[in-house]
């Protein structure tokens, strides 16, 4: 292993379309509620995660959510709200 390989070991680049695995627990900011579709969602880069539960008063909150399903090709998934961590505003 070269010195460069050792230096870069474990280094990764951020992406605008992160992927998630079903069952994974993640912290996200709830981005918005779509009135037309009745969809509460969080955007992580360009990835959209829709909540299977939760109410519109979670918009702007940082929450712990469990990934229920995820489509890598469409960068869309569903998550379940587990816990509200912070009722911040951004």
Overall description:
This is TRAM domain-containing protein. It holds the Pfam family DUF7513. Residues 19-81 form the TRAM domain. A six-stranded mixed beta sheet has the order 1-5-6-4-3-2, with no helix packed on it. The chain is mainly beta. The protein has one helix and six strands, in the order H-E-E-E-E-E-E. The model has no long low-confidence stretch (mean pLDDT 91).
Descriptive key words:
90 residues; mainly beta; 6-stranded mixed β-sheet; 7% helix; DUF7513; TRAM domain-containing protein
Uncertain regions: pLDDT < 50 for 5+ in a row? none
Beta fraction of the residues?
35-45%
Helix and strand pattern: HEEEEEE
**Secondary structure: helix percent:** under 10%
Reconstruct the topology from this structure:
Layout lengths: L2 H6 L16 E5 L2 E3 L4 E6 L2 E5 L10 E10 L4 E11 L4
Parallel strand pairs: 4-6
Antiparallel strand pairs: 1-5, 2-3, 3-4, 5-6
Question: What can be said about this structure in brief?
Answer:
Residues 19-81 form the TRAM domain. 7% of the residues lie in helices and 44% in strands.
């Amino acid at each position: 292993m070269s010195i460069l390989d050792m230096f870069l070991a474990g280094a990764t680049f951020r992406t605008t379309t992160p992927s998630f695995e079903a069952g994974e627990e993640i912290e996200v900011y709830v981005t918005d509620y779509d009135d037309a579709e009745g969809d509460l969602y969080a955007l992580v880069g360009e990835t959209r995660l829709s909540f299977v539960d939760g109410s519109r008063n979670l918009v702007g909150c940082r929450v712990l959510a469990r990934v229920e399903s995820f489509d890598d090709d469409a960068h869309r998934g569903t998550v379940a709200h587990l816990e509200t961590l912070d009722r911040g505003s951004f």
